[in-house]
Write a structure and sequence with these properties.
Length: about 260
Amino acid sequence: MEFALAPPRQRRTTPASPADPWSAPALRLVCLDIDDTLIDFTASSSGALAAVLGRDDLWPLWEAVTDRHVAMVVAGDLDYAAMHRTRTQSFLAEVGQPVCAEEAASFERRRLELLRRSWRLFDDVLPCLEWLRAAGVHLAAVTNASGAHQRTKLADLGLARFFDHIAIAGEMGVAKPDPVMFHTVCLALGCDPGEAVHVGDKLDTDAIGAHDAGLGAVWLDRAATGAAVPRGVHVVEGLAELPELLVCEFARVGVPAPR
Ligand SMILES: [Mg+2]
């Protein structure tokens, strides 16, 4: 595969090598969020919840309760192992069905079993990952979730083979948008943040977080909301748009990085 590279526009990092002092920044690392970026998590998760509950109108409340509990995890007040159970207990209490810890755990087991059976990739994921591998960049999955859950998901869907590094908040004790999350990934793969791009569906957690950490930032707006974004944040409405964006914004896509 050949890539049409745009001419260098401006120098934003140190030169790639002394022999090539005027080059534009190389893109050596592409980080990708997982849920709702690669995997249609909202469809699977809302479907599994509806199946367990026998009703389909409570997804917004589930999301709100989950966000509240994830914030506690990010703040260090709760660990991921406990989060699922306490989140479910809180949710069921809010809908007038209070349960004990054991019942909450049973609810979670049924929900996760259904969820695991319904995971699916967005159609544009595999072509994009194949392109990125062919382009010679490092690939990292960077996700805010529990380790076992995400690793199972990546394995089930055959995605693990694409990634040089998998960074999971539940295993690291830090989560996006904390710059430590992004910088740890760059360090692990020997890249400067200025040589990396992060792509994700959450404008604040993924795109703005990555931008603030010094990475290139791409917001994946699959719903094509047209929402305003801060200066420096790029927007795509599907992963099929990503190769062109990277080629145009990072003139030296695919400069080999040490593996
Ligand atoms: Mg996501």
